[in-house]
Write a structure and sequence with these properties.
By secondary structure, the chain is mainly α. The longest helix is centred in the last third of the chain and has 28 residues. It starts with a helix and ends with a helix.
């Protein structure tokens, strides 16, 4: 069990270092809206991963994603990311408020959940990890539970830490920095969305 937990933490650290659309949105949200907004988005990602793992583990361990399903997810997810990116590019830039405004946590949880769930490559790498554990027969069911629990907790902890660090910078962020942050985040999301659509089509 200890070996499985350590391995799960290692996988979680690797996955948390990947810079994707969620990463950019997490940093931007934390700077603009504060730590709790970024943390809420991180929990949305956590719930999405948890649901994917549960479904794959108990019903589709060794089943590859059909081409039709992957195409549909890629198109929907790509359009979703492009839409958010365009919103960031067109959004009116305002200076970061020195006071933390009251936010609707459920909205940020839902945003993180959708951004993660509509990315077909998320389910692909979870299928890959679960398939590897099934084929290698390295861990029993109890150890596999420890592996995935450690992986998810590590990813969540890393995302919350990123949110905290980014939120601490909000008091030194100027309106010009926010403007460029919107441009960078929006452009990155559009690029990720276009790449997702191109990859599932070709």
């Amino acid at each position: 069990m200890i070996e499985a937990i350590i391995s799960g933490m290692g996988v979680g650290l690797i996955l948390s270092l990947l810079t994707g659309p969620v990463f950019f949105s997490l940093i931007k949200t934390s700077i603009e809206k504060g730590f709790m907004a970024g943390a809420s988005l991180a929990f949305g990602v956590f719930f999405s991963d948890l649901i994917y793992i549960t479904i794959i583990y108990y019903s589709a361990k060794n089943v590859a994603i059909s081409e039709k399903y992957s195409l549909l997810m890629g198109l929907i997810g790509g359009c979703f990311l492009i839409g958010i990116g365009i919103y960031y590019l067109l959004k009116k830039t305002t200076a970061v408020s020195k006071e933390i405004q009251k936010i609707k946590h459920s909205g940020y949880v839902l945003k993180g959940f959708l951004m993660n769930s509509l990315n077909p490559f998320v389910i692909i790498y979870w299928i890959g990890i679960i398939s590897y554990l099934s084929i290698s027969d390295k861990y029993n069911s109890q150890s596999q539970f420890g592996f995935f629990a450690a992986t998810l907790i590590t990813i969540l902890s890393s995302d919350v830490l990123k949110s905290y660090i980014a939120s601490r910078l909000r008091h030194v962020i100027s309106q010009d920095v926010i403007k460029w942050l919107n441009i960078i985040a929006g452009s990155a999301l559009i690029i990720f969305g276009l790449r997702m659509i191109i990859q599932v089509l070709f």
